[in-house]
Amino acid sequence: MIEPRTNSPLEFVKIDQPMERVVRITLDRPGANAANTQVLKELHLAFDAVHDASDIDAVLLTGAGKVFCSGNDIHEFAQMDSEYAAELMYRVRRAFWALHDCPVPVVARVNGVAFGTGLALASLSDVVIASDRAVFGLTELDVGVLGGLKFARRLVPEHAVRRMFFTAETYSAEQFKQFGAAITVVPHDSLDEECERILRTIVGKGSVALRMAKQCMNAVEHLDFRTGYEYEQTFTIRMSDRPESKTAVRKVIDDIEARKRAKANK
């Protein structure tokens, strides 16, 4: 089990290990899992702890109860002035970057409402599995703040983002998918089964390959086409000397040969 770098127990973020080599990070704050300063600090600590764990190959990120994350705590917004806002935005960024920089793939299990910060957390994950009860939205203008645009653009096209932001309307998971979001929507009762299936597929690829792939993906995301591909090739070169690489390609070759023999024996 991973251990956050803190002397105090986490209050609103729970960490457990539902599967071998998989850690689950759960937002669990009464009041719709709203992200206040403490939640953001604990998220940062939780994902930092994943950095320190060599025996973890994937993370499942979710919310307790019927909500993924309803956004930032509006009571903190009500108390904000420019000085306090700067501190809060710093806390938000630290939590977001800790998730983005997680060294292993993150699967978001979106079990309900994902507004504002909740949508951002989903967008920063590598795979998004959403219940058909999930609801997405950028409701910032309704509470007098800005933010979330860069994260929403990771999921849906520009004009969908503008519509979401200017109207502050909310959308079902299916509607969000119709906007172009690359998410998987499943019946609510199948959510855990689908998340487990995806996680088992991911961790089966091997620790070294997963960590190198995540590092490579994060690095090339904002590079130009030629520079990005050239950088990506350096990871192929690095992987070529790894025993895991030879084992993986040998398995594929053995499978091909087995199918050929089975076909020839028919």
Describe this structure in words.
By secondary structure, the chain is of the alpha/beta class. It folds into two domains: 13-203, Alpha-Beta Complex (2-enoyl-CoA Hydratase, Chain A, domain 1), CATH 3.90.226; 207-264. Helices cover 50% and strands 17% of the residues. It is built from eleven helices and ten strands. The strands form two sheets. It has a six-stranded mixed beta sheet with strand order 1-2-3-5-7-10, sandwiched between helices. Helix 1 links the parallel strand 2 (22-27) and strand 3 (58-63). Helix 1 (37-51) packs parallel to helix 3 (82-100) and helix 9 (207-220) runs antiparallel to helix 10.
Relevant terms:
266 residues; alpha/beta; 2-enoyl-CoA Hydratase, Chain A, domain 1; 2 domains; six-stranded mixed β-sheet; four-stranded mixed β-sheet; 11 helices; 17% strand
Q: List the quaternary state of the chains.
A: single chain
The number of helices is 11
Instruction: Give the strand line-up of the largest sheet.
Output: 1-2-3-5-7-10
**Would you identify the CATH architecture of the largest domain?**
Alpha-Beta Complex
Task: Say what the CATH topology of the largest domain is.
Answer: 2-enoyl-CoA Hydratase, Chain A, domain 1
The share of residues in helices is: 40-55%
Structural class, by secondary structure, is alpha/beta
- CATH top level class name of the largest domain: Alpha Beta
How much is the radius of gyration in Å? 20 Å
Number of domains: 2
| Corresponding CATH superfamily of the largest domain | 2-enoyl-CoA Hydratase, Chain A, domain 1
Shape: globular
N-to-C order of helices and strands:
EEHEEHHEEHEEHHEHEHHHH
Separation of the first and last Cα atoms: 49 Å
Number of strands: 10
The largest sheet is: 6 strands, mixed
Uncertain residue ranges: none
